[in-house]
Structure formats: structure tokens, C-alpha cells
Design brief:
The protein has 157 residues and is mainly beta. It contains three helices and eleven strands, in the order αβββαββββββαββ. Strands 3, 4, 6, 9 and 10 form a five-stranded antiparallel sheet that branches. It has a four-stranded mixed sheet with strand order 1-5-2-11, with no helix packed on it. Strands 7-8 form a two-stranded antiparallel ribbon. Strand 7 and strand 8 form a beta hairpin. The chain is globular.
Length: 157
Amino acid sequence: MNIKNLLVSSAFILASTTACSAGSIEVKPTKNEQTGTLTVHVTNIRDAKGQLMVAIHDTKRAYDNNNERAAYAAITMKLKSKAASFSFHDLPQGNYAVVLFHDENANGVFDIRGDEPLEGYGMSGARHALDQPSFRKASVPVGNETRTVSVKMHYYK
């Protein structure tokens, strides 16, 4: 999986989502299904310009192929500070990987020049800027409780 391809594809998912200034999204579970919450804390955001675009994937296939229609849920959140937190509520039990980027100019696109990212990006499970964790390493198990994951934003320059 290539970081550039993953984030560019995620931009297409996120460009069609509704802005979420409250920092949470409700997901509709099936009847009688136990659900949990995934709270995401984003650190190392360069500035409060633009928006944060976030997708969560619940399958290895969706994560690896980054099929823009296959994200389990996605939000776009206007930034108000250099850190952000938000929650995905009522998630069915399972594993979820987080992919996000800082859309500084709010154009709905992960901007790149050649192979060089011009905006910040992050993934759950990534230990450093060039880390491309597998779905297994990136995923966070969610049961009937609240799980929290911290994602560090990385900038090429």
C-alpha cells in the first residue's frame, strides 16, 4: 500500500462527506447488535487552518485497496486548534483503521507535488511519517466499550 495512493483515495471519500463541527458521528447499528465508540485524538497538527478529513476502514480489503466507497465511516471537521478529538459512536464490534489528512486549504483534495505530500497525513498504528502499517497493525478493536487511539499528524516539509 502506498501512502500517496491511500491518502489521495481517501480524499475522494471525504470530499463528499458533510462537515462535522461537533467532533462526533453517529453510526446506525443493526438491531440488537452490541456497539462501541472509537475516540480519535489527533496530535501534531501544524496549524488550525482548513479542515481534518478522516475515514475509518473496517476490513483489510477496504484498507489495502482504499476503495473510496468502502470506508465504514468518514467525517470532515473544521479545525479550531492544533489538536483535534472526535468520536465515532455506535460502531458494531470489530476492528477499525483510521486514515486522515489535514486539508489546509479546504479544497477536499490531498495536495501533492510529484510524490511529495504538501499537506499533513496520519494513520492509526503508524510509528513514523513513512510507516505504512498493515490493516492488522493499524486497526483498533472496538467492542461494547469506548476505545481511544492517538494519531500523530506528519508533514513532509
